[in-house]
Fold:
Amino acid sequence: MTGRDTYIREEAQYIPARSSIGEAGAAFLELSQVGFSYSGKRPAVLSGINLTFAREGITAIMGPNGCGKTTLTKLMVGILSPASGEISLEGRSLQEYTLAQVGRRIGYVFQNPNHQLFCSTVEEEIGFGLTHLGEEPAVVRERVDFYLDYFELSPYRDQFPLNLSYGEKQRLAIAAVLAGEPGFLILDEPTVGLDIYREKLLEEQLHKVAELGRGVVIVSHDNKFVSQVAERIITLENGQVKWDSSWRGNNDHEA
Ligand SMILES: Nc1ncnc2c1ncn2[C@@H]1O[C@H](COP(=O)(O)OP(=O)(O)OP(=O)(O)O)[C@@H](O)[C@H]1O
Ligand SMILES: [Mg+2]
Structure:
């Protein structure tokens, strides 16, 4: 075991609470024949997407640049609306939820951290979601301190988030979403800008989130990271699901 492995084990004392949203094993998010294009005149970016995500487990979405991974995740959190087909969250059409209601169920880490950070200090950024949810100040402080320490952002506590380096902004964006302890988490290319050690920290924390019965979807090009974290791998190509490892042993689901 390296010194850094020891650090991860010894320092990672803060254990998030088990997800209390709904029943384990039930479908959480379901996409049925989903299609999307950015303009009615352009060719579809996504078509005929049928995917079901349980409320637990770690799934990776992979595929070449431009195949529609980010578009798919934005549809899954209601930032975009499907042109065809249906998306349901906990059995209800996603269109019946406001973005804030989706946000309380699903934490979303954008591909570009600059699109996510809006507070005036690093500390405020991590605590924002919790404060907004009405958490006690002592709880917010404890969790902010944990994530500042865990992702080695303590020296930047009072700094303006957008002045951080790309990797620091990425860690902050991830910390800010993890701190809200969402029952389900979607991270778009979370390891871009992270070195191997920070990737390891993220991997450990995602495993911990999954052990607590929460679902995680990661979009990634990072084969090594995916092989270490994901139990299920979905591959997109030209806006369609080319392969889903959950098809194995269940041919009824094949496209
Ligand atoms: N806002 C937008 N307006 C018009 N076209 C867009 C927009 N965002 C993405 N696209 C196009 O939609 C397609 C899918 O883009 P998307 O960002 O979903 O791909 P991706 O798989 O996430 O790619 P990457 O691996 O580079 O992140 C691409 O052809 C892209 O150029
Ligand atoms: Mg993308």
User: Anything to note?
Assistant: The two ends are 44 Å apart (CA to CA).
